[in-house]
Amino acid sequence: QSVLTQPPSASGTPGQRVTISCSGSSSNIGSNTVNWYQQLPGTAPKLLIYSNNQRPSGVPDRFSGSKSGTSASLAISGLQSEDEADYYCAAWDDSLNGVVVFGGGTKLTVL
Amino acid sequence: QVQLVQSGAEVKKPGASVKVSCKASGYTFTSYDINWVRQATGQGLEWMGWMNPNSGNTGYAQKFQGRVTMTRNTSISTAYMELSSLRSEDTAVYYCARFSTPGYYNVGWFDPWGQGTLVTVSS
């Protein structure tokens, strides 16, 4: 049972816009920044979005992040086949002397 | 370029210990914390703890307290994660990741990640 809640799956067709939600609480998303990681099949996670809505260099602007209250969202526009991956949200949690908590992950399928 | 390269796969018996290494290159090793995250097959990501390579200070997730030890050798820019009293549930891929933050820990992120080390616990 993950501390942050994500839908287990999402899908879309090429060119579509897809959003993935991440729900938390006041001790994590509500008071700290959210990061998103992309994990392509058989590879290590890669930073996709940091500090709620910042893209590292090299990440296409098709990817965007937002946060409101105790929830965050990842949006992917102009969906491409290479976007098929698992996506994880993460945040610091102020409880238990501070820990990093992850969502359970969302498997994105490009139809 | 900034890179973290981890040691190879391990197979251990229940009750044994495993030590995974993570060699950093492309940046000043002592300037960034190293965190460890694991992922059981087909499962999500689970944070294990952090280590400051400069001071050697560490912080562990409560779940792993007493079983995990994170250390470093600054002369070779390498971090280590040792997990003891292994059980079958510890079978997972273990990742190290560099931690970056503009200030406090609660606004930081992991980038990059090592390639992962598969640890299999089986009798």
Helix content of chain B: under 10%
Helix content of chain A: under 10%
Sequence of secondary-structure elements of chain B:
EEEEEEEEEEE
Alpha-carbon distance between the termini of chain A? Answer: 28 Å
Task: Give the N-terminus to C-terminus distance of chain B in angstroms.
Answer: 40 Å
* Strand percentage of chain B: over 45%
Which word captures the global form of chain B? Answer: globular
- Low-pLDDT windows of residues of chain A: none
Class based on secondary structure composition and strand pairing of chain A: mainly beta
Q: Could you give the count of β-strands of chain A? A: 9
Q: What integer value in Å does the Rg of chain A equal?
A: 13 Å
- Content of β-strand of chain A: over 45%
Account of the 3D structure:
The complex is a heterodimer of chains A (111) and B (123). Chain A is an all-beta fold and 111 residues long. Chain A has no helices and 9 strands. In chain A, a hairpin with a 6-residue loop joins strand 3 (34-39) and strand 4. In chain A, the strands form 2 sheets. In chain A, strands 1, 3, 4, 7, 8 and 9 form a 6-stranded mixed beta sheet that branches. With 123 residues, chain B is an all-beta fold. Helices cover 0% and strands 50% of the residues of chain B. Chain B has no helices and 11 strands. Chain B has strands at residues 3-6, 10-12, 18-25, 34-39, 45-51, 58-60, 68-73, 78-83, 92-100, 109-113, 117-121. In chain B, the strands form 2 sheets. In chain B, strands 2, 4, 5, 6, 9, 10 and 11 form a 7-stranded mixed beta sheet that branches. In chain B, strands 1-3-8-7 form a 4-stranded antiparallel beta sheet, with no helix packed on it. In chain B, strand 5 (45-51) and strand 6 form a beta hairpin. The radius of gyration of chain B is 14 Å and the shape is globular. Chain B starts with a strand and ends with a strand. The model of chain B has no long low-confidence stretch (mean pLDDT 96). Chain A binds chain B through residues 2, 31-33, 35, 37, 43-47, 50-51, 56, 88, 90, 92, 94, 96-105, and chain B through 35, 37, 44-47, 59, 61-62, 95, 97, 100, 102, 105-116.
